Automatic annotation (TrEMBL):
Keywords per UniProt: Glycoprotein, Hydrolase, Signal
GO molecular-function term, one example from the UniProt record: acid phosphatase activity
Protein name: Purple acid phosphatase
Occurrences of domain Purple acid phosphatase N-terminal (ranges): 188-295
EC number: 3.1.3.2
Keyword Signal: yes
Keyword Ubl conjugation: no
Organism taxonomic ancestry: Eukaryota, Discoba, Euglenozoa, Kinetoplastea, Metakinetoplastina
Length: 607
């Protein structure tokens, strides 16, 4: 929201900005008590805020005190931050429903008046009337009108949030959101696989990480993963790993436990069956059913056995996404997918933790069968600073190209995936303020990692992140900024590294369409084919069907570097083959509803 004000200057009052910071950032601060705080006169409207590391957002709570001391209308928000951020009340379910009822009523009021003063008075009156039978601090009804209005302001910029839930669960902490059915609190769900570490997934011995969710904590020493080779009959002996990691978070009222363990020493080209959970005889319904997956064979990525990758961004779980989810499920079940890369805007939770749970459940038939490698998007990071994403997905830690040691300060928000003849750079283009951000740490890592892999040779280099370096504008005016100043900023951070290391392609999302460019360097087309080009070609692959829809493009000609574009619901597949010293990638854009090919092209690189 800071960026919305700074870049567009269309917010009506600085007070709206301040209230946003008060309600969002003060709550983030609650999770980081005891941290050193900067000068309270720090200017939140300064461009320097865009260069702050994402984890410094909690400092805003300190500044709210200074704001509140000068602006009386902020005192309820500041008082609320200090008196109400202690978790849900005992009658949380009842209070949550009442709060959401007020929020829904507030939206109705806002649809019928454009006068902010009238809207605030009306919402406050409704709030006090609905809450009159409940013991709740008066401050809630003082804060709620402004909270609903500020979120509705965001809606004007196409951020399609569940306003009652955001206000009541994320801002006012009046809702509890259980991850799972309380009747089976130990039953694993939301099971998903990922490659473990930055080791090559095509190798004699590989590992596969599996993660899952339960409502309640299970037993240490008996919680883990069990697996066996079922390629032939009779199947192999069971192996087990009960050295299980777990973590949780409480933002948005979420209640649940996130577990992860690793299947080790897996042989190439084999079919494994596994299950997860707690084997303790003292707990019933605590293990999953058996699930099967395949390890990559040693010849994956050759003419004999091509490597098959499915790629997408910007999907979610709603009706718009169902054709893509069904098509992807069919392809995984048919053995047509080796692993998946998802470049941000994964579940479109936007602070609604129930949305995360629903997405993960719907995607389990896919994610539990093949590795699902992800990077963050703005819909993961705008609310709660990527926290839910970072807890739910156990992606690899990147290693330092110079020393080989892990970089835990990365937060596993960027890393490499080696798979035979290709390496994917899964990068992070997001700030906690819904603006692009590439930290100096990541920019240096990208420069060094791509240079290292280019010097080593033998692989095609392919980068993915959420926001575009090159894009054609949608009809929505907000994208003028995304394809203008924001894209220019990302080019300044990443483009030269891509060119210097001969990165073949860059896939992004963020815009809800599909776009393909010629190879481009510093806004100039360097070739009209993809045969060992001297600069990357760029793909926007954000049309699989998110809840915000796929808006039309702006009328006019495609830019000189543009080749093809469409808003059809779709996702991509890559068929990768290495022969001699050349890697070829056969890319297809798949129509979600029918499986037909919408667009197809080939990239080749001498390696």
């Amino acid at each position: 929201t800071v960026s919305v004000l700074y870049w567009w200057s269309k917010m009506r009052t600085v007070g709206l900005l301040a209230l946003t910071v008060a309600l969002l950032a003060a709550t983030a601060a609650f999770a980081h008590e005891g941290a050193d705080l900067p000068d309270p006169d720090f200017d939140w409207l300064s461009p320097a805020v865009h260069e702050q590391e994402r984890d410094s957002l909690h400092r805003a709570a300190h500044h709210i005190k200074a704001f509140a001391s000068r602006h009386s209308y902020l005192k309820p928000a500041a008082r609320f931050a200090h008196t109400r951020l202690r978790g849900p009340q005992d009658d949380a379910n009842k209070t949550c429903l009442v709060c959401q009822e007020v929020g829904q009523a507030a939206l109705t009021i806002l649809k019928n008046t454009t006068d902010r003063t009238i809207a605030i008075s009306a919402i406050a009156a409704v709030c006090k009337d609905i809450f009159k039978q409940h013991e709740l601090d008066d401050v809630v009804c003082n804060v709620l009108p402004d909270a609903v209005i500020l979120v509705s302001e965001l809606l004007r910029y196409r951020f399609n949030f569940d306003v009652p839930n955001i206000v009541c669960a994320d801002m006012l902490h009046q809702c509890v959101e259980n991850c799972c059915d309380p009747a089976t609190p130990y039953l694993p769900q939301q099971i998903h696989l990922s490659f473990d570490g930055e080791n090559d997934a095509v190798a004699n011995s590989t590992n596969m990480r599996v993660a899952w969710t339960t409502l309640k904590q299970t037993t240490a020493g008996t919680t883990g993963v069990w697996w066996r080779d079922v390629t032939t009959s009779p199947p192999g002996m069971w192996s087990a790993n009960t050295n299980t990691e777990w973590r949780t978070y409480t933002i948005g009222g979420w209640v649940g436990v996130l577990h992860s363990s690793v299947m080790t020493n897996l042989a190439p080209g084999r079919t494994y069956e596994y299950y997860v959970g707690d084997s303790s005889p003292n707990i019933a319904n605590a293990t999953s059913a058996g699930i099967k997956f395949k390890t990559l064979p040693l010849n994956a990525g050759t003419d004999e056995r091509p490597l098959n990758v499915l790629a997408l961004a910007d999907m979610g779980f709603g009706p718009n996404a169902q054709p893509s989810i069904r098509r992807m499920t069919q392809m995984v079940e048919a053995g047509e997918v080796d692993f998946i890369v998802h470049a941000g805007d994964i579940g479109y939770a936007d602070g609604n933790q129930m949305f995360w749970d629903r997405f993960m459940r719907e995607m389990q038939p896919i994610m539990s069968r093949v590795a699902y490698m992800t990077g963050p998007g703005n819909h993961e990071c705008f609310f709660w600073n990527c926290s839910a994403y970072r807890h739910r997905f156990w992606m690899p830690q990147p290693s330092s190209p110079s020393t080989g040691t892990p970089l835990p300060e990365s937060g596993a928000l960027f890393y490499r995936v080696y798979a035979g003849p290709i390496v994917f750079y899964m990068l992070d283009s997001e700030s906690a303020l819904n603006t692009p951000l590439v930290s100096d740490l990541q920019a240096t890592w990208v420069r060094d990692a791509t240079a290292q892999d280019a010097a080593t040779g033998g692989r095609m280099l392919f980068a993915t992140h959420h926001r575009p370096l090159y894009c054609d504008q949608e009809s929505d005016s907000i994208m003028d900024l995304e394809c203008g100043d924001y894209a220019k900023y990302l080019r300044s951070k990443l483009e030269q590294s891509y060119i210097d290391s001969s990165v073949a392609a860059v896939m992004v999302g963020h815009l809800h369409n599909y776009q393909r460019t010629w190879p481009v360097a510093h806004e100039n087309v360097v070739a009209h084919n993809y045969d060992n080009a001297s600069a990357p070609m760029y793909l926007v692959n954000g049309a699989p069907g998110n809840r915000e829809g796929n808006p039309p493009f702006k009328p006019g000609n495609i830019p000189a570097w543009g080749v093809f574009r469409t808003i059809e619901r779709s996702f991509m597949t890559y068929r990768i083959v290495k022969s001699a010293n050349k890697v070829a990638l056969d890319a297809k854009l798949i129509r979600s509803t029918t499986g037909a090919i919408i667009d197809r092209f080939n990239i080749t690189k001498f390696v």
